[in-house]
Write the structure tokens for this entry.
Amino acid sequence: MPTDARGELQDGQFEYQSRKDGRVVLTWFGQAVTTLAGKEAERFLARMAGLHDYGAQLLVAHATSNFRRGNERAARRP
């Protein structure tokens, strides 16, 4: 399992919600980042079973696929 080298996952920034239709929504500070469906959602939920807070944070962060890379820049104004 990956590690949190910078210590940023201690404050619980990632969460997940399992929906009735089988989809899993991954959030970062309350904003939806990624939605998993089908077999991918089933695998994710199976891996989450039995994990505590820190391990769950690592798994959700890994499942978001490094979403922040490249889109941190402020929008250009005309």
Remarks:
- The chain has one domain: 8-63.
- The radius of gyration is 14 Å.
- The longest strand covers residues 31-36.
